């Protein structure tokens, strides 16, 4: 019994060591993963393929950044608002979803260096004579909730303007525009162009209001997460220097600037 007890104890120690080793490897792998939250309903920046894989400019860019700094990237689809909640609760490390850098958002998250310039465009039916956002006074305007599109419309007409209809995702707003429930949709420039291609040329007009400001996108991290912020900025710099950024940009936007 004593010899068996010693033998069992020795085996237990060995097994414990093996398990600890496996646990250590697992932990190291986890530490080497960037958990990314996105709203994959905003083409061409992020969208889901038929097999569920998340693609798009943002998706390819963050994967290239991860590769540049030697880290694996895992991307999860969630609501736009949920990205910020996920950051605050450490559910995700990074929010990448065509997020415009604003002073309000800087109060709760930190942003990387800007990686994309955009504007708000207006999508209206072909027979519309609208040329500026202000001309939509009294009209029904669709926007995606919690985005700068909503903020821009509210800035012109006020937060209590009854004509603003906020949607959880842009495709729903586009659908309502198609069936006549809306007079216009205000959304980021590259997104409007992408949707207009799918809707069919000649059915809608894209209006660029020169009075609307240029916006810049940044990748968001939890406030104070300087380690992740530094890694992202390092990776962004590398992909811009090695030409990978331009390659990805060309794939989704061509020569459009």
Automatic annotation (TrEMBL):
Residues 1-21 form the signal peptide. This is Polar amino acid transport system substrate-binding protein. The keyword ATP-binding does not apply. PROSITE patterns: PROKAR_LIPOPROTEIN. InterPro entries: Iontro_rcpt_C, Solute-binding_3/MltF_N. It holds the Pfam family SBP_bac_3. It comes from Laceyella sediminis. SMART domains: PBPb, PBPe. CDD domains: PBP2_Arg_Lys_His. Keywords: Signal. Residues 33-256 form the Solute-binding protein family 3/N-terminal domain. Residues 33-255 form the Ionotropic glutamate receptor C-terminal domain. It comes from the Bacteria. The lineage of its organism: Bacteria, Bacillati, Bacillota, Bacilli, Bacillales. Gene3D superfamilies: Periplasmic binding protein-like II.
């Amino acid at each position: 019994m004593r010899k068996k007890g010693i033998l069992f104890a020795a085996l237990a120690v060995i097994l414990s060591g093996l398990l600890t080793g496996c646990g250590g490897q697992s932990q190291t792998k986890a530490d080497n993963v960037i958990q990314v939250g996105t709203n994959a309903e905003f083409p061409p920046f992020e969208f889901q393929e038929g097999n569920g894989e998340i693609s798009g400019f943002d998706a390819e860019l963050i994967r290239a950044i991860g590769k540049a700094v030697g880290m694996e990237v895992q991307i999860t689809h969630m609501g736009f608002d949920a990205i910020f909640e996920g950051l605050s609760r450490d559910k995700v490390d990074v929010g990448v979803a065509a997020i415009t850098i604003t002073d309000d958002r800087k109060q709760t998250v930190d942003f990387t260096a800007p990686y994309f310039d955009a504007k708000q465009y207006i999508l209206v039916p072909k027979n519309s004579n609208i040329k500026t956002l202000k001309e939509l006074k009294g009209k029904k305007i669709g926007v995606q909730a919690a985005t700068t599109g909503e903020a821009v419309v509210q800035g012109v007409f006020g937060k209590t303007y009854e004509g603003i209809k906020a949607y959880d995702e842009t495709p729903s707003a586009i659908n309502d525009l198609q069936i006549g429930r809306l007079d216009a949709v205000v959304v980021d420039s590259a997104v409007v162009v992408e949707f207009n291609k799918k809707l069919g040329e000649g059915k809608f007009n894209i209006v660029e209001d020169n009075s609307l400001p240029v916006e810049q996108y940044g990748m968001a991290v939890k406030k104070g997460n300087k380690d992740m912020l530094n890694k992202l900025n390092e990776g962004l710099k590398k992909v811009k220097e090695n030409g990978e950024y331009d390659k990805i940009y060309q794939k989704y936007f061509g020569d459009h600037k």
